[in-house]
Amino acid sequence: MNKNKPKIKINKTFTATLLFFASIILMAGCTNLEKMPPTGKPFVSITADKTYGEAPLNVSFTITAIPARGSIKKLMIDYGDGSSEDLTQKLKGDTISISHEFKAIGTFRVRVSAMDQNGSSEAEIQITTNDKPIISNLKAYKVIYSPSYSEIVTNEFMPGENVRIRALCIDHNPPFYGLIDWGDGSIDQILGECLGIHQYSAEGDYTIRLIVQDSAPQPLSNTASITVKVRYVITPTNRPPELDISLSSTAGEAPFSITLYVGVADIDGQVAEVKVDWGDGQVEILGDADKIGEIGGKKLYRKSHTYTSQGVFTVTVIAKDDKEGISTEEQTVIVYPLKPILSVRFKDQANQDPNNKTYDIDMTLYDDQVIILTDILAYDFSYYDLIAVIRKDYADGSTRILVGPIAPPYRTGIYSSENYIINDPDDSLQISPNDIRNSPMGFYPDGITVDYTVKIYAVRSGIAGIWWWTNCYYNGFFSNLPYCESIINTIENHPSSVYSERKFKVRPSP
Questions:
Q1: What is the DSSP string of 429-454?
Q2: CA atoms lying within 13 Å on the CB side of residue 481
Q3: Least buried of 25, 157, 211, 235, by fewest C-beta within 10 Å?
Q4: pLDDT tens track of the chain, all 510 residues?
């Protein structure tokens, strides 16, 4: 062995540099650089094959979740309809495809959140479901003027006679509009009610089509049809039974019970059968056990029924005589959902959730320094009111409560308000030095800490009993707080009430 062989010294700096570049090359070969998230948080996104349609609506989602470091430790999805799902174990690679059925009518904010070793990220998408207009009991009528005015249900007419059609049309997004295609080239437009009158000049069989469309941003439509025969010679028709119905009530919350009263007679025969279709899949024949008497030649019946789920139901009573003559009468029953759909996102001027935050106010400035915004999504405000409650508890022991409606009047269908500031009489959600200087006691001109509690309620229309802002306060000597607290108690304890809440604090700058 040659002991005089020179030793090779390896520069440590050179070695570290070489290893660094080698690792970069290795990473480039093993990682899709285009998928690497641009920030230190995981990248997450969500797309849907559809964002609007008729309920129940099945939606397929594609979710992409790429960790900034390590792997995705948690992947959750909140469908916005009260259900959520842990997708962590289902995630294979960077993407996952799932489906979900939205059974109710409304607007749903679907949020997906991903967490890795560095932190968490969120993405969201909005899904809206609607229902197409309901068309029921489409019939053709002939008007009889003697001896008294009446309408006879028939499909047979003579040329030149008035053909009157009528149907019951209902929709959650009024007003609906549409047209009547009379089948002979004539078309009439309709708005808000499904009826029309037409005369045919020639014999023939004509199919009348009623097409109704709602007034939603992306409208849905429905179609019904009926065929009439127009002849110069018409065989005398049997007079169908005379039929009257009434309901004890037509609207209420599930479970909702009603009582139906029926009066029926036949002037040229006998009543063979009286049947009631409750509109929820249940059909019953009225018998002797349901009779309660007779008046004016009409047999009287009484029958009760309970609706266990929400919806718009058509109660149809069908009376048939011994010559196959048929009369029908209908009434609509609305069963409200127990809870409305409400989604509220609170955010401050920095686009952050204000919950449990403390905001410092520079008392040398006069501008609004804290602005609390609310993004409100709700559905079908034909039946609900949006109410804001703002409570300010001052460090001096005084309190101010403001209660008032925040949704616009004449609201129907989907109500969506983005970046909405609750403008009560004191502009309480646009906070300036005056808001922390002017307590009800008024003893602290240099400012005082104020604890804010903000609640947004959705509650059945008319429950709150207020139409404008109500201002209650306690100043150490006088208090009318019980008045506002009574209103709040009525709202909060009503079965239809839901709300979102945030608490935060403002104070003078240290």
A1: TEE-HHHHH--SS---TT---EEEEE
A2: 16
A3: 235
A4: 444 444 434 454 444 444 444 444 444 444 443 444 445 789 999 999 999 988 889 999 999 999 988 899 999 999 998 889 999 999 988 999 999 999 888 889 999 999 998 888 999 999 988 888 888 889 999 887 766 677 888 999 999 999 999 998 887 767 788 999 999 999 999 988 899 999 999 999 999 999 999 887 788 899 999 999 999 976 666 788 999 999 999 887 778 999 999 999 988 889 999 999 999 999 999 999 999 999 888 999 999 999 988 778 899 999 999 888 888 999 988 887 667 777 788 889 888 899 999 999 999 888 889 999 888 776 555 667 889 999 999 999 999 999 998 865 444 445 556 566 777 666 678 999 988 888 999 878 788 999 999 999 988 888 888 888 899 999 989 999 999 999 999 999 988 888 999 999 999 998
Instruction: For residue 111, give Cα distances in angstroms to 89, 98, 124, 347.
Output: 18, 14, 4, 16
Residue 129, strand partner residues: 53, 106
Q: From residue 241, how far is each of 151, 238, 297, 317, 323 by CA, in Å?
A: 12, 9, 12, 12, 10
Topology of domain 40-130, CATH: Immunoglobulin-like (2.60.40)
Angle at 102 between CA 101 and CA 105, to 5 degrees: 155
Pairing of strands 156-157, 150-153: unpaired
The answer to whether 40-130 and 131-237 have equal CATH topology is yes
Half-sphere exposure of 240 (CA within 13 A, CB side): 20
Overall pTM > 0.70: no
